[in-house]
Amino acid sequence: MNASGRGNTAAGASRGGFRTERAPDGRYRWQLKASNGRVVAITSALFETSGEAERGFDGLRAGAAELTARITHVRDGIGWIWVIPGSRGLPEVRSSRAYERYATCRNAFRRFVVLLAEQPARELPERAVSSRRPDGR
Fold first, then answer.
1. How distant is the alpha carbon of residue 9 from its chain centre?
2. Cβ atoms of 67 and 82 closer than 8 Å
3. SS (H, E, C) 66-111
4. Helix (H, G, I), strand (E, B), or coil: what is residue 23?
5. Which residues fall within 8 angstroms of residue 67, CB to CB, at 6 or more apart?
6. pLDDT, tens digit, 9 for 90 and up, residues 62-88
7. Which of 3, 29, 32, 127 is the residue whose CA sits 20 to 30 A from 55?
8. Are 39 and 32 in contact (CB under 8 A)?
9. pTM confidence score
10. 2 with 8: CB under 8 angstroms?
C-alpha cells in the first residue's frame, strides 16, 4: 500500500495488473485491471489485511484454469454480470461492470481468466506463526 493508503500495484503494472485497496470500513479488497487501465474484476470479499487479499488473489490465480462463472442478469437495470462463487456460495469475484449482451459478458469472463493466468505469482510474507511448542510451552 502506498503512503496515501490508496492501494498497491504490482511491479511494472502502472496501468494494469493486480491492485489492493482499502475499503471505507478499513478492510481490504483487490481488483484486476487490463493493460488499458480498465478494471476487469473486483473481489466481493473483504479481507482484514492487504496480505490476506493478496493471498486470496494468488489462490484464485493458481486455479485460473478451473474457474467457472455464473452469468446472471443484474437486479437493478439492464445487463449481465459474471460472478465466481466462493466456498459458501457467496460471490468471491465479479465483473466490474454490467454487459449489455449475455455473449459479451461470457467473453469478458474468458478474457478475465486469461488475464488472471498471466499474472505473475506474488511473493507473499508468511503468516505469523506462533512461537509456542505443541506441548504448550
1. 13
2. no
3. HCCCEEEECCCCCCEEEEEECCCCCEEEEECCCECCHHHHHHHHHH
4. coil
5. 60, 84, 113, 116
6. 989 899 999 999 988 889 999 999 877
7. 3
8. yes
9. 0.74
10. yes
